[in-house]
Amino acid sequence: MILLLALTIKTDTLWVQPSDPRVYGATQTGGGNIVAWTRDLSRWMAIFTIVKGFQLQSAIMAPGFLSDWFSGGVGDAGAFLEDGTPLYMGLKRKNQAYVCAGYNLFGPYKEGIGEFVLSPDGKHWAKVMGKNDGYVLVADGKEVAGPYDFIGPVFYDSLSRLYYRFTEGDSCGLARDGKLLFRYQWIGTKVFLRGDTVFCEVGKDGKWSGDKWKGSEALARNGEVISDWFSAFDLARFAKGKPVFLCGDKDKDWIAIGDSVFGPYPKIMYQLRGPDDRIYYAVSEQGGMSLYENGKLLSEKGDKAMLSAFLDDSSLGYSLSASHSGLAYTKIAPSGESYVIMNEKRFGPYNTVLLSPPFVSLDGKHIAWVMKEGDTERVWLDGKPQQGFDKIYAKESVRFSPDGKHIAYLAKDKLGVWAVLDGKAVAGPFVDPSYARGLGTTFSDIYLMDKEMAIIGIQWKEGNRVMILRVRVSF
Length: 475
Known about the structure:
Strand content: over 45%
Number of strands: 46
Distance between the termini: 19 Å
Structural class: mainly beta
Largest sheet: 5 strands, antiparallel
Shape: flat
Radius of gyration: 25 Å
Helix content: under 10%
């Protein structure tokens, strides 16, 4: 059923499962894609359909002898090379895994580990595979490293050079295109590149406990230690070309931004990079959570504050908050009253439960959050409540349009799940997204533009026939 308001609503069928009784079905990946797969009984091939945003892409792959099981290895970047070659995994019988590129199969291996890694130009790929009692790195169909005790992370730089970290016995190494750059007792999994310069965490004077490292840690540049040694260390990110790292010793924490060190603090819980590379971080102290910016206290000690995420400019329109708007956060005062704060704007006090950090429009003019009153959840926009529902899917679906004039999200009541636009249910009801394999329709995501909203998802019919639908709402 589609609920019509003063809007234009159109439903398109993007893919229909063939009548083959051995069709497997469809699923959603962590990156927001929908993967549908089947196999042709006469040719024993798998057909994968990838839906992301408004786009549809299909590919036929896999020789028929890999007919026991198929899995789409589609991550946030997608498992398609620039020329359209699909990357996927096939498994025949127990412990016979094949890594596949189009019709080319490589293996067998024991298992596949993690996602496919693609080069920035989309021409090269790599994947870690289990082999015997260790792991090897397969790149463009060739084993280029291993076997090692473990391999990861694996990544390409802007020049499509392949980097990988590996563990071997009681040491770790970092390599590029098969050439060892340096070794230490321990190398952290966070590696940052600036041209040919490599920053990472390294360790010494310690020991491995299972897969965990316990020992002294420091920051290294191209394998040379450039910081003091600490009992706890975390290279977080870069700001204006300077490394940002957290370090701790004897129950105290510090945060360092280049040569500037702030602290000590009782406990730094997390940090975010905001506008103009300013660093915000939350400190657990005096029974609450305090917010700081480059050493400056922003909230009041004793408050329980929760930072919003800042916008990643690579995903305009689909992030929680906007870097252009400055700091936005929620807090709970020691008295129990709740507040929402964005720059100089202050909303509250409220005596209800805050369920989410704030969401800020790209232009920085509007702010929204989710609160619960009794059994009712509702979105508040610029301090005004919208329609109440049993559940708001805040983390998964709250979106501002790029121009900041519209807000959309998924919400549930007794009838099902609705797509909500500007506080009004405009499409639905659909099946709860947590209902994995039922009859009805489950929608996975909302894409909101200035003049159009699209919801893409899977419809299940009698006999487990699968259809992928796109509902477009124009306004």
